[in-house]
Structure of Integrase catalytic domain-containing protein:
Amino acid sequence: MDEGGCRVDINHGVLHIFDRQKKLLVRVKRTAGRLYQLQATVGKPACFALHSAEDTWLWHGQFGHLGFNNLRKLAREELVRGLPPLEPINKVCDACLAGKQRRASFPEQARRRATHVLDLVHGDLCDPITPATPSGNSRYMWIKLIAGKDDAASAIKNFQAAVEVESGRRLKVLHTYHGRESTSIEFGEYCANRGVQRQLTAPYSP
């Protein structure tokens, strides 16, 4: 109680304990053995309490959302002391449904699949990230660092020139998100003149 900020006063054989708001919590008289004995009952923490109208739901939560069949098996075979017989539950636990659901598998064959280098290139941008590099660029892309989104078109042009020289192939399809730097008239004319087909994702609407 002292470590919790309470004030302890002893005067004329009587011990007083006050909380931080100076409210009296304890008043204890000194015994014949010169001790101040306090009989206190520790309250049950509310954060560990689970309230439910049905015992099955209560034990389901206490055992970390164990399956109802396994929970009834514990009670039926008396594998846990004090666990009463539990009734079957036909409802679905929302927490289990959200925490144990499985993601659908990916298709074995994608709708669009590139067969050669530069047949399909995906590009994306992000907002500035801190801390910036010494030259003022954000540390997001490993291939090309840009100072702002206005430099995206120039970055794509430089990237295209470099990879086409290195691979000996031409860029066919460029897939980017629906940003203004990817939909500008100037960049559209650039792609059209070089035979690059543009694919744009649907615009994001929150």
